[in-house]
Amino acid sequence: MDLDQLQLVSDVARQGSFAAVAREHGLDPSSVSRAIASLEDTLGVRLFQRTTRRLSLTEAGATYLRFAEPALDELKRAQEAALSVSAEPRGTLRISASIAFGQAVLVPALERFRTAMPSVALDLVLTDTPLDLVAERIDLAIRLGAAPQGDVVASRLASTRYLVVASADYLARHGPIDTPEALSDHACLRLDLAAYRTSWLFRRAPEAPVTEVPISGPLKISSPLALREAARLGHGPALLADWLVRRDLRDGTLVQLLPDLEAAGSGFDTAAWVIYPSRAFLPQKTRLAIDLLRELVSQPAEAA
Fold it and tell me: Any residues with CB less than 8 A from the CB of 296 and at least 6 apart, and which?
C-alpha cells in the first residue's frame, strides 16, 4: 500500500463514485477500481459495498478509514515538510472563496500566483456556500464578515471597508448626494441580505455616534457582482466592499459618495479572513499564498 492508494480509498469514500474520483485524479475508472480491489485483497476485508446504484463504505471500511485518514494526513505533512526544506513549493493548492471575491480579487491575480509559485497548480473553488475544509480537501478558504468560528485557524487578511458608490451618469441625472440622510430620497440598490435590505450605517470615526439611514428601492439583488453591475449601469447608489469596486473607482466607472464617512451594513468590524484546518505544520505553498492574499486584500483602492 502507498500514499496514492490510500488517498484513492479516502476520495472514493468521500465522493461515493469510482468515476468521479477517476476524473479528479485524471485516471481511468478501472484503474481506481483495481487499486481499491488490490487493497481489499491485501487487508482481507471488503472496504466498499457495491451496487448498480451506489457505492458505500462497509463497516470494516469505515473502521479502517477512521484510523487510516489521520495517518494519511500525517504522512502527507511529513512529505511536504521534507520537500519544503530544499525545494520550491509544489503540488496543488486548493483555495475556496465566495464567487464575488474570486472573480474580483483572485482571478485578476492569477499571474501573480503563478509567478510566486510556478510549480504549484491552483484549484479555485468559488462558491457562496461555506465548505467543510477537511471533507472538501480545502487548503485555504477566504471568509468575509465577523471572525470565523469553529475548529479552524483564522487569520485576518485585512479589515473590509464598505463604500457607497454610484455611477457618474446617475449623479448627473439625480443630483449629488451630500449627506447620508439624502439616500432615503433615492432608489438604492439593495443586497438581498437581512442587514443590507432596509438601512445602512454611517459614522465619522470609530468612536463617533452611528447614524442609521433607512434605504429603499425597487431593485433587490442577491449577487454582489450583479449589484455592482447595476450600479455601473446607473440604476442607483449601492453599498459595496472596497475590494469589489477598486478598479471602478480608479477608472471612474463608479464614484464614491460620502468619502468622509465610514459606511456599513450590519456592523463596522468586518474583515476578510483566511482560514485553514488546524495543524502543526503549514506547507510552504500555503504560507506563500497567505502572504500574497494579505497583500492583495490590503492594498488601497488607488493601487489596485
Answer: 105, 106, 109, 112
